[in-house]
Specification:
16 helices; about 15% strand
Length: about 425
């Protein structure tokens, strides 16, 4: 199968879980003898190659052209006020990336170089415009992957322009693939065409995310970096410091945790708009000795070491369509505490009761409930180990990339077969 994959973040430019997903699944496609062309964004300075072969994947990164000065009179006010990293500037970059990528596929690769694609896929609104354009111009089967929605990410206060792009892509797509049953229900509630929606989870590499890959010296060194002693418990949050991740409520749970386990420390790793607010909570609650921040995006090798070093991983998200961090931590044999209200794919990932229990579901709006989940994860050493082993077992059975990529290919093959049947 020859695929044109449109995804705005791709190595070495990774912002969040989407970039990790794109890198892993395209690499697995190649190992299964698929032909992949990825169309993604260049960096802000245009320093990345505009065309290269990486791990068998052909990558195209158009150079940015700043059109932001021409946009204020032709775009909606909500775009100016929203956007990841800067409203109109960010939106202009996304538009240019989409138009140039679509043009390259249609006018250069297909028309001039004779490329023949079987399918085009686009991920989230950020690449949807290019997917729609390629679908219309080349009449290719179009799969729209929805990893999150604008309304969900902003808890209902997002951009109508981006909402409309998502809906338009869903209408134009031949298939809509989303990351959890919770997300499927959200999309149906938002008016997406139900008959097109398929569910396929994200995955993790259990060989890479394995407790055997990090030795005891590395663990000890990392814990010492945060001042966590051998007899202390390390609670870990790693991810974007965004409101929907529930970090404020996790910080407010710490005094309750410390009442029962005074030798607990919370380590928060990531970047985002909540940095200053999180620091203020720590100061007001006098938690400076018990909360350690690292305001950085850490590379994958360090992320794996953090999972190995912690005693429990906590992700009290208010909105989490899937949550790759959860299966990463589970693969590292760590108990998990996850937000389980609203749209929560993590609720499907983490088993919270019974013989296969690997973690706890909590109300992310309630610090006392978060504290309850953390305390029950770590206060019994034998139980903590059992939860972790159950988590890795669940990953090996359900969430490896080998499992996920074959299911994804199966969905694509179903679509192509149905299209061929119609042509007959």
């Amino acid at each position: 199968m020859k695929m044109a994959v449109l995804v705005w973040e791709y190595p070495p430019k990774i912002v969040g879980g989407l970039g990790t997903y794109a890198a892993e699944i395209t690499r697995k496609f190649i190992l299964l003898d698929q032909e992949i062309s990825v169309f993604t964004m260049n960096d802000d300075d245009g320093n990345l190659p505009t065309r290269e072969l990486w791990r068998g994947v052909e990558i195209h990164r158009p150079l940015h052209v700043d059109v932001s000065d021409s946009l204020p009179d032709v775009i909606a006010e909500d775009v100016r006020k929203s956007g990841m990293g800067g409203g109109i500037q960010f939106f202009s970059k996304i538009l240019v990336y989409n138009y140039l990528s679509a043009s390259k596929i249609i006018n250069e690769l297909v028309s001039k170089e004779g490329f023949q694609y079987d399918i085009v896929t686009a991920h989230d609104w950020l690449s949807a415009i290019a997917g729609i354009t390629v679908k219309r111009d080349l009449d290719l089967p179009f799969v729209f992957h929805v990893h999150s929605t604008e309304k969900g990410r902003t808890l209902g206060n997002g951009s109508e322009v981006k909402n409309n792009i998502e809906h338009r892509a869903a209408q134009m797509a031949d298939m809509v693939v989303t990351v959890s049953n919770a997300m499927k229900e959200e999309l149906i509630g938002l008016g997406f065409p139900q008959e097109k929606i398929k569910v396929c989870y994200n995955g993790v590499d259990p060989q890479k995310y394995s407790p055997d890959k990090v030795n005891a010296d590395e663990v000890k060194k990392l814990r010492a970096l945060y001042g966590v002693k051998d007899n202390e418990f390390m609670i870990l949050f790693i991810g974007r410091l965004a409101w929907i991740k529930g970090i404020d409520k996790l910080l407010m749970a710490m005094p309750l945790i410390l009442k029962e386990i005074p030798n607990a420390k919370l380590v928060i790793v990531g970047v985002g708009e909540m940095k200053e607010h999180a620091e203020k909570i720590v100061q007001s609650q006098k938690l400076q000795d018990s909360v350690k921040f690292r305001f950085e995006f850490v590379p994958e090798e360090e992320r794996i070491a953090h999972y190995a070093a912690c005693d429990v991983a906590v992700f009290p998200s208010l909105y989490e369509p899937f949550g790759i961090v959860a299966i990463e931590a589970m693969s590292m044999e760590k108990p998990i505490v996850v937000g389980a209200t609203g749209i929560s794919g993590m609720k499907e990932i983490v088993i919270s009761e019974g013989p296969q229990q690997c973690g706890f579901h909590v109300n992310p709006n309630d610090p006392s409930d978060i504290a309850w989940g953390v305390l029950n994860s770590i206060k019994d050493p034998a139980r903590k180990i059992e939860l972790g082993k159950n988590g890795r077992k669940r990953v090996l059975e359900n969430f490896t990339w080998d499992v996920i990529v074959r299911k994804t290919l199966g969905l694509y093959e179903q679509l192509l077969a149905s299209k061929n049947e119609v042509k007959k």
